[in-house]
Amino acid sequence: MSNATKKTATEARAELKTVKQTPGASKPDAILVVDNVVRDFGGNRAVDVDHLEVQRGVITALIGPNGAGKTTFFNLITGFDQPSSAKKMFGGPSADKAAKWSFNGKLLGNTAAASVAKSGMVRTFQLTKALSRLTVMQNMLLGAKDQRGESFLAAFVKPLWAAQEKANIAKAEDLLKRFKLYEKKEDLAGSLSGGQKKLLEMARALMSDPVMIMLDEPMAGVNPALTQSLLGHIQSLRDEGTTVLFVEHDMHMVRHISDWVVVMAEGRVVAEGPADTVMSDQAVIDAYLGAHHDTDLGDDALLEEGAMDAPKKEKK
Amino acid sequence: MAEAKKTGVEPVLRADNLVAGYLPGVNILNGCSIEAYPGELIGIIGPNGAGKSTLLKALFGLVKIREGSVTLNGEDITGFKTNKLVQMGVGFVPQTNNVFPSLTIQENLQMGLFLQPKRLSERLDAIFDIFPVLADRRQQSAGSLSGGERQSVAMARALMMDPKVLLLDEPSAGLSPVRQDETFIRTRRINKAGVSVIMVEQNARRCLQIADRGYVLDQGRDAYTGTGRELADDPKVIELYLGTLAKDVDAK
After folding, report:
1. Is residue A89 in some structural domain?
2. pLDDT confidence of residue B7
3. For A295, which DSSP code?
4. Structural contact between residues B177 and A290, judged by C-beta atoms closer than 8 angstroms
5. Following DSSP, what letter does each residue of B151-168 receive, concatenated?
6. How many domains does chain A have?
7. Are residues A85 and A62 part of one domain?
């Protein structure tokens, strides 16, 4: 958990200033290093990342158009999917071309999702995976790591785990308050609305005190005022030493909290840099943000033919 | 339009003091009232769990209405079955799982016109006119589409029956900024073509930009209403719901 040479978040961010703004740039203190990760679906290459490093102790945003492979990339490095370029017993790519990625100094290829999570890399899902027949509180408690009562024999001796359980409950209540779910703690998770399930998912991931948390569109479907207060929470996580990697389409959020932005398109990392630099890049605007990202959509001129590329021949 | 409201035109869809919920004894909607006049684009925003999706489902007959009434063009439709409502001109695009992934795009659209199969070719032409991208790919299975494309298919399917009112549940969720803008502009075009639209959105800033009128839902009630601009500038709405992040970041 705690790194021997633990730096403050401010130092980690200051180090980023020296990093070259090119795709695959090396970082002074990388917590995640990914090489040659490729995933094919039939003839379709969804992910093709040559090299990517994520700096420890900062907030990194991963942005890109729909279908750029962001979620697939998350699945691959967290063990929910296997790269097509993985090392094989026979055949397969040569050693220097094979997929290889390490987290916190530990090689992770061929590691099951549960072990990845145990090593401190915890993720959330875009489509939420709450256990709907358990209560909100039970869902939260499942997220806690190393519970003594997990051992078969210890489970029968309450004094062995009662204190830990109490601490976990207190922690869960604290998180639920922050995520505006406290009033719902005895309700079944299945009865929550879409946005609330999203919040539960994030809160549950935080129960395990992750070294790095990976959030897949955390704020999609969460109302803006609550988003704003949660951003403060994410920033304080960073300041306490957690590394954050998130996928998001809300550019205000990306600009507001990210220290570093990585842009993916068609499976590749196409740009990296601080938010302002990346978002003023013409290629990123064309492919992703669109020409109207700063305009008011109430403008009637946008309804004219040809004002937008996608629906070409429109009936007025 | 707002003028319609003044001149005493009948609302195309009106919900009056709706009470509804899923579990016995637990109400999600607690007396929610909204009105949509012909040609209006209504935006509905509100905190998570306020009952926005439930309101749309109640209007579309997917959630049982416990109290209150719904009228369509003055006719009482409270408690009507979904298939009846589709026939009467109400269309609905759900938030998730809104296409049949194993069917092709064309088959998906065909499902939308299940009740009037004879009009298929006529309606397909009209829809492909609005969504030309779908025409080129009509034989592709919907499961292979990206999030934005699925949203188009779902919206197209709801339009197959040529509805008078279209209910949209978070049409921009999960889409990249450029696709979100497209979705909003497409919604405006559909609205301008004469379809009244009631849309629920979390992308509140965008939603209020394009809406003629908006409602803010809170704890199952309509807490505020006004034109899109009024709501976007209302300090109370900003504090409780919109937040100041977008403004702060833009000001930087």
Report:
1. yes
2. 63
3. S
4. yes
5. HHHHHHHHHTT--SEEEE
6. 2
7. yes
Q: What is the ipTM of this complex?
A: 0.74
Choose from A44, A62, A63, A66 for mutation: most chain B CBs within 10 A: A66
Same domain, A180 and A230: no
pLDDT tens per residue, range B127-170: 998 888 888 888 988 888 877 788 889 999 999 999 999 999 99
- What is the least distance, in Å, from the CA of A106 to any CA of chain B? 33
Same domain, A226 and A109: yes
The yes or no reply on domain B2-96+163-251 and CATH 3.40.50.300 is: yes
Test A225 with B241 for CB contact under 8 angstroms.
yes
Angle at which helices A224-239 and A194-206 pack, to 10 degrees? 10
User: Which positions in chain B touch A296 (Cβ < 8 Å)?
Assistant: 209
The lowest-confidence range among A70-84, A167-181, A275-289, B212-226 is: A275-289
Between A and B, how many residue pairs show a Cβ–Cβ distance under 8 A? 155
B192, B198, B202, B208 alpha-carbon torsion, rounded to 10°: 50
| A296 lies in some domain | no
| Domain coordinates in residue numbering, chain B | 2-96+163-251
Q: What's A108's domain CATH number?
A: 3.40.50.300
Mean pLDDT value across chain B: 89
Tell me the nearest-neighbour CA distance from B8 into chain A, angstroms: 26
Average pLDDT in the A36-57 region?
90
State the average pLDDT over residues B59-85. Answer: 93
Of A158, A126, A122, the C-alpha closest to A142 is: A122
Choose, out of B176, B205, B206, B234, the residue to mutate when testing the contact with A (most A CBs < 10 Å).
Answer: B176
Answer yes or no: is A201 within a domain. no
Q: Do A298 and B209 touch (CB under 8 A)?
A: yes
Residue A1 within a domain: no
Q: pTM value? A: 0.82
> Is the Cβ pair A293, B249 closer than 8 Å?
no
Place of tokens 């937008």: A308
Which structural domain range is residue A167 located in?
A: 133-191
